[in-house]
Structures are given as C-alpha cells and as structure tokens.
Design brief:
Layout lengths: L1 H15 L11 H14 L33 H4 L1
Helix pairs in contact: 1-2
Length: about 80
C-alpha cells in the first residue's frame, strides 16, 4: 500500500505542482506502520530532527503507548 497508493501518487502529484500531502489513518498503530513502510521506500524523506526531513507523524499520545510511537507524539510543535 505504501508504494502503490501513497508514494507513487504523491510523486506524480509533485510533477504537476509543489505542495504537501497528508495521510489520515484509522488508528495510530496503522499510522506508525505506514510511515515506517514509506521511510523504507524513501529513506531520504526521513530525519529524526524536528525541523528536517520531509515526512512526519502528528498524533496525540498516551502514557501507555509503546516506545515506537512516541517520536510522533506531541502535536505540531512536538514534531
């Protein structure tokens, strides 16, 4: 799904016009897993630093979340 639907579609859209994209997922788990798959396909899009990279997750968090989800938590200012 990451390659066929999201990455390919986004890159084709970028050929026509610059801009941003947003993916809305059914659950936070799905969001994290999809982001991980996209990063495998396009590692140059990722950076662990907040102000760098081209792909980020913005989501609410919970104290009971697994550690792998925590980098995306915190809202726009936390990304």
């Amino acid at each position: 799904m990451a390659k066929g639907v999201e990455v390919d579609r986004f890159e084709k859209r970028q050929e026509a016009m610059d801009g941003k994209g947003m993916i809305v997922c059914m659950s936070r788990r799905i969001c994290v897993e999809l982001c991980d798959e996209i990063i495998k396909l396009r590692p140059q899009w990722h950076s662990g630093e907040d102000g760098k990279g081209q792909i980020k997750i913005v989501m609410s968090g919970s104290a009971s979340d697994v550690a792998e989800w925590q980098p995306g938590e915190g809202g726009v200012d936390g990304v």
